[in-house]
Amino acid sequence: MTPGQLEALIRASLTQLGLPTAPDSISAILPEVSVERPRRPEHGDYATSIALVAAGRLGVAPRALAADLARALAADPGIAAAEVAGPGFVNIRLAPAAAGAVARTIVEDGADYGTSTTLAGRHINLEFISANPTGPLHLGHTRWAALGDAIGRVLTAAGATVTREFYINDRGVQLDRFGESLLAVAEGRPVPDDGYHGAYIVDIAAAILAEHPQLLHLPAAERLELAREEGYRMVLTDQQRVLALFRTTFDMWCSERALHESGAVERALDRLRDAGHVYTLEGAQWLRTTDVGDDKDRVLVKADGELTYFAADTAYYLDKRARGHDLLIYLLGADHHGYAGRLRAVAACAGDDPDRTLEVLIGQLVRIEQDGAEVRLSKRAGTVVTLEALIDEVGVDAARYSLIRHPADTPLTLDLDLLRTHTSDNPVFSVQYAHARIAGVLRNAERAGIHWRAADFDPGVLVAEQETRLLGACAQYPRVVATAAELRAPHRVARHLEQLATDFHRFYDACRVLPAGEAATPVHIGRLWLSAATRQVLANGLALCGVNAPDQM
RNA sequence: GCGCCCGUAGCUCAACGGAUAGAGCAACCGGCUUCUACCCGGUUGGUUGGGGGUUCGAAUCCCUCCGGGCGCGCCA
Predict the structure, then answer these.
(1) Residues A240 and A137 in one domain
(2) How many domains is chain A partitioned into structurally?
(3) Complex prediction ipTM
């Protein structure tokens, strides 16, 4: 019996209790029925607090309601025991056969186990990283590369249609400064103070010169354009290469320049003007965002006629909506959180309800440390840690996983030394090792001629404490994925995998899976099913993290 | 000054409003003649920054104070 099936049973039981209350009030509380895994095993496999929640509204005493519910549940053959505890919890213990049946469900569902339709029909646009094409991706982008990708995977698992987008800021002052810096290096001049000073500038300038030896003989204006455009092309290509290496993919790379060239920006401004949200002051055109909660109005067109970055982003919002996305998720670094209010204002000015169409997730910064000391990140000092360097240091799996296993809104420190270790101290290896260990057992079973899949599986044989805990963790997995999607919090998947791995290692330590010489018994078969189910859950969860699930290590 | 985020064990961090707040690291003590010891068991460790409030019940929600990060351009 899965948690979902148990909840359905509780709902059915509640409606059949014959409570002295209006049927309407009973059906009103049914959606709130949920079971949880108690922290303490002696509280049972599952517990529900529905009696506590509902008693007041039904006009009955919590413990009395709980007792009635417990009695009704206990009558079901899948329930071994149901009893009232504390102020009105109902603690539930499943019959071994009902609990163990989850293993069969998991093995049969395979890669689909854990997916759901809770977000079916939603067209979600997920924008993340969106770095300037003026340098390699660095640690500041890395968290979003891993987390944004994982959020996309989790949302997809929950049934949403997800479009992942990378917005390229390929227009404006920053790109010009980048081009000027490249040209300065190419010409042997010092980089301007407001330019880019990283060592990579020298490399790119050299690459441009190698490909375009005629650069220095062109007229000045053409020189700058060639340096800028070639530098842009090289940086973007490199960003795409590194992201692919990092297993982070995008459905769409949207260019700010293209928004201007296609007329999308002008059309967006026209639409806002028509809606009466634009006014002119001191030669500039402003969007009246204060009408919708922003703390100040924002400039769309500067007094010199130049369009602002904000104007393009407004157009981009409308463009995404016009493409049919009903929810736009933006992942921003903490240093850009001030932008959230402006985006909300844009949504409101466009006639949308920002609470429905817009979500801005703010990620705190990542620090890294090595040899017990923080590695300072400084562009000036040339100690910028790039995404590629991090991959070189610890590998894609460890880098991705360590970034994913923390909520986005907490500051995070990566310990490079730890990420390189291959022991259970390193969570990603603990999880991967559990997967590899199971794969090994299943290989051995095959080698020994034990065809567990074809054999009779009696779920009732899985009664050891380590077995029931492992079953419970496997059964919980779909709920974890659904919650992770709902909260945009893939770290919940990772944390659950760690618990699952620990539960497996304990099970493996206590319970012999394969027969040691003798013929395979129903217990061996049952444990093979349980092992196979665990392997499937680990593989599915690691896939959501974008981390490999190795068959051997 | 205004706004957003954060404050949990010595360290790094978990915990849909649920029961006695959990893992890992660090420290110490144990466990392999059999399926991967890259593992497992045990011990030590807390006024969840302080104080109020909401309720059956608060690390979680509200108020306030303290401490830290970040943001408040006709920059992008």
Answers:
(1) yes
(2) 3
(3) 0.92
